[in-house]
Amino acid sequence: MPLSTRAIRRLLLSLLLVAPVALFAASEERPPNIIFILADDLGYGDLGSFGQTKIRTPHIDRLAREGMKLTHHYAGSPVCAPSRCVLLTGKDPGSAFIRANRGMAKGGIRVVGQPESEGQYPIPDAEITLAEVLQDAGYKTGGFGKWGLGGPDSTGAPLRQGFDRWFGYNCQAVAHNFYPTYLWDDDKTIPLDNPAFPAHDTLRDDEDPNDPASYERFKGNEYSADLISEQALNFIRDNQEQPFFLYWASTVPHVALQVPDDSLEEYVGLWEDPPYPGGKGYIPHFNPRAAYAAMITRMDRDIGRAIDLVEKLGLANDTIFVFTSDNGATSGTHEGLAGTDAAFFNSSGGLRDGKGSIYEGGIRVPAVVTWPGKIPAGSTSDRVTGFEDWLPTLGEVAGANEVPTDISGVSFVPTLQGKKQSARDSLYREFPSYRGQQAIRVGDWKAVRQNLMPPQKTTQIVRTELYHLGTDRAEENNVASEHPELLARLEKMMRESRTPSKDFPFPVLDEATP
Predict the structure, then answer these.
(1) Distance CA 313, CA 315 (A)
(2) Has residue 9 been placed in a domain?
(3) pTM (2 decimals)?
(4) What number is the average pLDDT over the span 54-76?
(5) Distance between CA atoms of 501 and 511, rounded to whole angstroms?
(6) How far apart are CA 409 and CA 101, in angstroms?
(7) C-alpha pair distances (Å), 322 with each of 15, 35, 41, 237, 366
């Protein structure tokens, strides 16, 4: 009798796994619940606890006060899908399957609003995800928000990758609109009471950009972020009697700039706020700065509701909260995109660039972790950590019997305990889009290579840049010429840190990979 797909996956899991040592809890204790909240395009400086002065985030800031801030934490990639792949598989971008955003539509044509044609390139069935590791450890697993790792009928669909429950968007392109006409509820779509309108549009010639009424047609009745947060809270209520893993992949504050009026009113009039009539992507907004701030504060409100619920249910001491972002802020690299204004909010927190860039502003992200009585309150760690580290770390705190051995991530449980932990040897990043980028960090040194995939018919000499982040966190002073031996060593490490991918080719690097 042939093995089922699930049986094959379990067999692969057993062959590629090692049993971790549970350091937080004795075996007779209930494993902790894990609530992992992933913001979408939130910059390093967008939280009050990370220096933000204009946007209010009291509940996330509370988590920072009551737990640990990770100040040198790196997303898996400067954009959505590959970053999430690193997070869920524990493999860095040099070995992860998904390395760039790519649609995977039937017939090669994706039609936004038609569920049968949506979705991104899928992670393979054989990949072992964090959700599967926790599911096999006895956790109830639920995902809510944005997926982006495989269409509804693909091997990468969330219910085929370790999640017992899914609610939200499957396709990243559909998630560009907070008032969609449908969302996914497990493996079926549910209609929403929203008018259909494109997620990329401008005001018409007959619409006055200085008249608020011109922007009304870009609103709806059911705000997706509200629906997603309510379903996430229901998951907590429904699973309070057993360990659960809640993966809350919020779509905030990814553009388009859309937020209900009751939240928008909290910021309207606080500062000069020129209308965005469109023209730089996505849809117009009359108060773009207020909208960006209000989106983040509304997300923070919902996180506060989750904290309150956990406390009401008596689960606070048995629940780990993690909050971080999938990459840097939207307009840190593309100023003014969709009406965003990273400079006004200092969204990158003094780091260079933002989303889409492999400089610090694109990949270093805010991160806070709290677990009462286990993680020291009010603590900060400057140890370098990355998205690939979450799978082994959370597998360990959950007491999972087995975690994959073919991963790049390293558990940082000792760091979370407030203990000394040796520094990681290196942290590698690559991105075969936006002209091709590559970087590696070793200690405070960071080597960066840009323009590895220039436009056709363009001849460009690629020179490796070198920065000392301990004294130059903004990456303003390229000291490559002063340290030729170090530069050569880091270039060699970059070549050795990757495996070529036939699905996501990176010609310049593939040819040089040993």
Answers:
(1) 6
(2) no
(3) 0.94
(4) 99
(5) 11
(6) 22
(7) 29, 6, 16, 19, 11
